[in-house]
Specification:
Layout lengths: L3 H15 L35 H9 L4 H7 L1 E2 L12 H11 L4 H8 L3 E4 L20 H16 L9 E4 L19 H7 L2 H17 L4 E2 L23 H17 L3 E7 L15 E2 L3 H7 L2 H8 L4 E4 L3 E2 L12 H11 L5 E4 L12 H11 L4 E2 L4 H14 L4 H19 L12 H14 L1 E4 L10 E5 L4 H13 L10 E6 L14 E4 L13 E4 L5 H11 L25
Parallel strand pairs: 1-10, 2-3, 3-4, 4-5, 5-7, 6-8, 7-9, 12-13, 13-14, 14-15
Antiparallel strand pairs: 11-15
């Protein structure tokens, strides 16, 4: 599915909206304010849905919204608490500091929010620096939370367009919901498998489960090409070859959006072209514009052509295009390049505005700058009230053109109406055998041998060891090996050693017969084991696939999607 027809209708709808005047107030604001033509607004209420395509419905709804409603629709903050209306005292304190409210539902009501992001992190999460809280525990809790959030949003003037509820469900090291769902192997594992059909099927299964829980925006797939040994991107990328990464990104987008969840290509213009971490500082892209075009942007173009509804702008300084300005705030990159050159007409979403490169400005000024650059949604502002008030003041003062805000809101509402047309799966679909089989097939195709014979059982019995902190993964592999008929001993067996995210040469075992890289495979360059394998992921599916290879029941047919010094992409040839 291409989004090119949608691009045209959004542009037409936006033009129509800009010719329409009038606005309406809202019951929780002090007094009605003049609308864009000087008319006074009356109390706001949810508008009646308009028949027609999503862009036309968005255009009609935008024409009814007050200034306050328009501003709220471009905000997508996080909130504290695992329920929409009942939260702990600590979560109340967090919400008060963030937005001057007690609960997530209160935040939606006060600021007429267009969306909310569900956050959380795990131990091996390179994004944990800006995850201030956690909203997710298990699928039932997430479903109840999203139901409550939508109920609060349904009472807004923009209520006919469903609330956007997003999360970072990339699979691999950045996975918010992990229990009770089908967990895919990492993007790098999909790159190693090299089959976009497997990727599409797995992402369709995973997207169905997200939709069933009430999540309709996934901040995935990562479209960054791994041109450097970036630890913040790493196995979140589909690989170092832009063309190969592009076909994988296209498959992920198609699978996810066919399930009713908006895909978000990130992090434009390409975080994998710097090894620095934007959660700590402003990474600099020193490459020429031509190099970025050929080496960083093909996956973004492929995702756009596959119909991706959203693109995330990155806190990245592309020196060849707009030196010194983070892409999040760069009109040249977001409007001239992303929209003009690459032809994207969907929703552009900022990366977290609570990250250091965005906090060089106060929340209100940062939000205005981001919107003027070409973003349509402001994600994770560090202060919701200040961002909201800053946008409203800029709108009324003229530094935020009304046409720009209306354009942004029209895009957001169009995406909402598009998503509303797709029925969500039921909760009973979570972790079904069919979904797990899709994840298993992708993980099995990813297993790569970089040294040693192509296939063949490891001589048993086996002893599984690992770097520290991986007891759960060792237990998963042990169970999978046992199920595959391999005897596992606590000590004294043939050593299979596991290393993963963040591990280096010091975490290797000199006595291991087999060393397995469960994240990026670069560490294998220092391993002395006669057999080197890579799964690129520590998921249950990946450990099951690894066990099948070690038991001699499956051939390791993957190819490393990144170059490892001194090692081939595979010892299994090209067949």
């Amino acid at each position: 599915m291409s989004n090119r027809p949608w691009r045209a209708c959004v542009a037409a709808a936006t033009l129509t909206v800009l010719l329409v005047s009038g606005c309406s107030g809202a019951p929780d604001r002090p007094a009605p304010t003049p609308g864009p033509t000087g008319t006074s607004a009356g109390p706001s209420a949810p508008a009646t849905p308009v028949a027609g395509d999503p862009a036309a419905r968005a255009a009609a709804l935008v024409a009814t919204l007050s200034d306050e409603d328009l501003v709220g629709q471009v905000l997508m903050p996080y909130a504290y608490g695992d329920s929409a209306t009942k939260v702990s005292a600590g979560s109340v304190a967090g919400n008060q500091a963030l937005a001057g409210v007690d609960t997530p539902a209160d935040m939606i009501a006060k600021y007429r929010l267009g969306g909310l992001i569900l956050v959380g992190f795990s131990a091996d999460d390179p994004t944990k620096g800006n995850q201030e809280t956690t909203n997710v525990d298990n699928p039932k809790q997430v479903h109840e939370l999203t139901t409550g959030l939508r109920a609060a949003a349904g009472r807004l003037a923009a209520g006919p367009a469903p609330l956007l509820i997003g999360t970072d469900q990339e699979y691999g090291v950045v996975t918010r919901v992990t229990d009770g769902v089908t967990v895919l192997p990492s993007a790098l594992a999909a790159g190693a498998a090299g089959d976009p059909k497997l990727t599409e099927a797995a992402w369709h299964a995973a997207g169905s489960e997200l939709a069933a829980m009430g999540i309709n925006v996934d901040f995935a797939p990562v479209a960054d090409v791994l041109a450097t040994r970036s630890t913040v991107i790493g196995s979140r990328s589909y690989g170092a070859d832009p063309k190969q990464a592009a076909v994988q990104v296209g498959g992920a987008v198609r699978g996810l959006q066919a399930a009713g969840v908006a895909a978000t290509l990130k992090h434009f213009p390409g975080h994998g072209h710097s090894a620095d971490d934007s959660h700590q500082d402003l990474p600099v892209l020193t490459q020429s514009a031509a190099t970025l075009q050929s080496g960083a942007w093909p996956p973004f173009t492929a995702g756009i052509d596959a119909g991706a509804m959203a693109v995330m702008s990155g806190h990245l300084d592309a020196r060849a295009i707009d030196p010194g300005t983070p892409a999040t705030f760069s009109h040249k990159l977001l409007t001239d390049v992303l929209r003009g050159q690459l032809g994207f007409k969907g929703v552009v979403i900022t990366d977290g505005m609570n990250m250091p490169p965005a906090k060089r400005w106060a929340p209100g000024e940062a939000a205005v700058r981001a919107l003027n650059a070409g973003n349509d949604l402001i994600l994770m502002t560090p202060n919701v009230g200040q961002a909201y008030d800053g946008l409203l003041a800029a709108l009324r003062g003229g530094s935020l053109p009304r046409t720009r805000l209306v354009e942004a809101v029209t895009r957001v509402l169009t995406m909402k109406f598009r998503l509303a047309e797709l029925p969500a799966a039921q909760m009973s679909t979570l972790a079904t055998p069919e979904h797990r089989a899709a994840a298993d097939a992708l993980a099995a195709a990813a297993v790569t041998v970089l040294r040693g014979a192509c296939g063949g059982a490891v001589r048993g019995p086996v002893t599984v060891t690992s770097s520290s902190g991986r007891d759960g993964t060792r237990a998963t592999l042990t169970a999978a090996l046992t199920a595959a008929g391999v005897q596992v001993k606590a000590s004294g067996g043939t050593i299979v050693h596991l290393v993963g995210y963040g591990d280096g040469a010091k975490d290797l075992s000199p006595d291991a017969a087999v060393t397995v890289a469960m994240d990026t495979p670069y560490v294998l360059a220092d391993a002395k084991s006669p057999t080197l394998l890579a799964t690129y992921s520590s998921s249950r599916a990946s450990m099951t696939a690894l066990a099948a290879v070690l038991a001699g029941k499956a051939r390791p047919g993957g190819r490393s999607p990144v170059a490892v010094p001194g090692l081939p992409a595979t010892t299994c040839g090209t067949s």
